[in-house]
Amino acid sequence: MRLDRFVRTPLAALLLLVFALSLACNPAPSNMAPGAPAGSSKTSESAPGGEVTVRLIAPSGNTIKSWQPQIDRFNELNKGKIRVEAEAEAKDPLLDKLVTQFLSGQAAFDVVSIDGQWGPRLAPYLEPLNSYIEKDKVDVNSLYGKKRMDLLTFEGQTKAIPIGFGGFVLFYRKDLFDEAGVKVPTTLDEYLEAARKLTKRGPDGKVEVYGTGGLRAKGGYDATATLTYFLLPSGGRLISEDGKGASPTLKEPVTLEVLKTLKTIVDEGLSPNPLSWDQNNDRPFFAQGKSAMAIIYSSIAEMVEDPKESNVAGKVGYALLKLEKKGSAPAAGYANGWSMAIDKNSKNKAAAWEFIKYMGSVEAQKAMIQTGNPPTPISVLEDPDYVKQVPSAQALKEMMVDYGFVIPTAVTQGTEVEKVVHEEMQLLFSGQKSPEQVQQALFERIDQVMKR
Amino acid sequence: MIARRALTPYLWLAPVLAVLLGLMVYPWLWSLYLSLYRWNPLKNPVPAFVGLGNYLAILGDAEFYTALKNTVLLTVITVSLEFVLGFGLALLLNTNIRGRAFFRTACLVPMMLTPSIVGLAWKVLLHDEMGLVNWVLGAVGIGPQPWMSSPSYTLLTVSIIQVWQHVPFVMLIMLAGLQAVPTEPMEAARVDGASEWQVFWNVVLPWLKPLIMIVLMFRVIFAIRSFDTIFGLWQGAGPVKAGLVVGVYLYEQVRVFWELGKGAAISYVLLALTIAFSLYFTVRLYRGLEDSR
To answer: Which of A328, A358, B79, B253 could connect to B263 by a Cys-Cys bridge, CB 3.0–4.6 Å?
Structure first.
């Protein structure tokens, strides 16, 4: 039959109708409607026979690797009752997925992983856990520390449980420190002096080993981290205690001293150029032996001590960077990590809570030490076995239990604050603004952002 | 019978139209609607109607003008270089040089790569400390350059990469055009005593004019929308925002600050810019075709 005749037959009309109906009934187009969750069109549901499926979205990379064995263990222990299915996503796309899910009102994932900085922004979309905590009599403040739980409590409602929480500590080359006769710095001047002594140059003047890595200003997160690594232990802050403006410490001499020290380090070539530097450069750079010290997330010690991935395994010391406190705020370290929360639209909240409770338990947290997760229960942090097993454990424990810690931009306007710090730090490092100008601009602009 | 005949083609087109409506027209209309609202889901789940407020905010934002300036600069530099180099390569490959087929294929490789992968690959190559390019420059005595960290190198870095990637496109189109130029007018001109340069300027170039307009129009449209390469290199606007173009400005508003309404408005501003630039070429092309009739 010729094509033009076929086109006019009733059979062709029928095929056309079937095709059109199949398009209309296909669930795929609903995923492309605004607000529809990416990657999944179904919500969690109970399988026949009563087993509840709980869907978890977790950060990819080392985090999900460190969590997966305990997810499998939970599934074993709850066989026939609860089954957890995990999906991993890189950090930035993870936030995209979460926001899309929350706006759509469809809880494609029952349990969501929350970065420490996201808490204030995502809190309205999360299920309050107070009733679950009370029902099961979990003393979260004793278990994780009141300070950490305060970071996850919004308007009196606890919204998440901390699962992996680490701190940024000083990684330093013990051998190079001994060779140069340098000790772990306790003041900004000592840090600068140490960086000078530790920088090694070849006969052509090219730097072979930088005195310090860790100065980063490529992105907003990097620039904020670089500034606060030194500002927080010195008694400075970015945001006021009540969260309504910039911190008065930004106008204090301590901030100017920090800015001047960082600028001097860069101007003297003691660190790689921060304008193109981020933490993805910094960690392997230190592991290759190209910087003598760097401020790095504590759980990266596992990579640094692995001879297959690092040239400096066995040569690294770990210390909490405690600087002379010159500002009026309490000295603190920079900490951050992942917590788990329940989407308030989830249909499996009880099962989701059971899973979160297990992952935050001492049993699971102890087991996850082996897979590189920084533990959250205080008792695990204080366990002598933990300190023996993990090279950076002592420094992390000191920060979490004794010294104190802050997530500097854990506010609703966090991204705008990071933008301000990013722009000003880049202007500082490129020489377009003086430390004094940057200090003034930081206070004025952050104050403006917080008051909007 | 006649009505059924007239209707049948449209019935067959109906599924395609339905997909187009669903995947293109509906999102367009929805984003236009969204551009009239201020909506940051991380601050307030409920959008607030602001009318043209987002557009006015963009026009009052100094960063937008920085982005616009960088976009125009990048477009002019890259399109000019792409055209000159691409046409030059096409002229070369239109001669009977040895290995012509191999060179033609090799020249096409950059064009086949995804722009975001190009950005990531060049990020590794151009890394100030660990990149291959600086290692080579050091080995030949020139010394490493701050490709990724100096604001004054930023547009140069982006231009080099974009020209490298898009010259093959220009080369391909112009080569096809050169091979379609009829030989008789050229031979006649040579017989009349014209030099090769006169043959090129007075015979070949006028013949290629419509093709040149099309190539330039395509390149301008894509250059105005630059984003992938810059984002692949810096995951942002580059050192001291030296690489801030309208595409990156849009990305930051939507993806970093979650200002969805403002982001939608910027996309329409970008559309207006693209239409304005391409209109020039379209009108020139149309007039050229009219004149030749």
So the answer is: B253
With a CB cutoff of 8 Å and minimum separation 6, the contacts of A315 are A173, A174, A175
What distance in Å separates the CA atoms of residue A227 and residue A234, rounded to the nearest whole number? 11
Residue from B104, B101, B114, B110 nearest B82 by CA: B110
Contacts of A121 in chain B (CB under 8 A): 42-43
Q: How far is B293 from chain A (nearest CA, A)?
A: 36
The whole-angstrom separation of Cα A144 and Cα B200 is 79
Q: Considering CB atoms only, which of A16, A290, A415 is closest to B257?
A: A415
- A6 contacts chain B (CB < 8 A): no
Q: What is the pLDDT of residues A432-443, one digit of tens each?
A: 999 999 999 999
The string of DSSP codes covering A98-134 is HHHHHHHT--S-SEEEEETTTHHHHGGGB---HHHHH
For residue A111, report the phi and psi dihedrals to the nearest 5 degrees: -105, 125
The pLDDT tens digits of the residues spanning A345-399 come to 999 999 999 999 999 999 999 999 989 899 999 999 988 888 888 889 999 999 9
CA distance B293 to B287: 10
Low-confidence ranges of chain B (pLDDT < 50): none
Q: How far apart are CA B246 and CA B176, in angstroms?
A: 33
**Distance of alpha carbon A430 from alpha carbon B242, whole angstroms:** 12
Alpha helices in B94-227 (DSSP H): 100-112, 115-125, 132-139, 151-180, 183-191, 196-199, 205-224
Quote the pLDDT of residue A238.
Answer: 97
A223 chain-B contacts, CB cut-off 8 A: none
B42 within 8 A of A121, measured Cβ to Cβ:
yes
The label of the residue with tokens 């010690």 reads A301
Chain B touched by A219 (CB under 8 Å): yes
Return the pLDDT at A112.
98
Helix ranges (H only) for A209-278 are 220-231, 253-267
Dihedrals phi, psi of A126, to nearest 5 degrees: -105, 150
Nearest to B240 by CA among B155, B163, B119: B155
Query: What are the pLDDT digits (tens) for B251-277?
Result: 999 988 999 999 999 999 999 988 888
Sorted by sequence, the CB contacts under 8 Å of residue A271 that are 6+ apart come out as A195, A210, A211, A212, A213, A214, A215, A265, A277, A291
Strand partners, A46: A52
Q: Which amino acid, one-letter code, is at B263?
A: G
Instruction: Respond yes or no on whether ipTM tops 0.90.
Output: no
Q: Decide: helix, strand or coil at residue B251.
A: helix
How is A393-408 classified by DSSP, letter by letter?
HHHHHIIIIII-EE-T
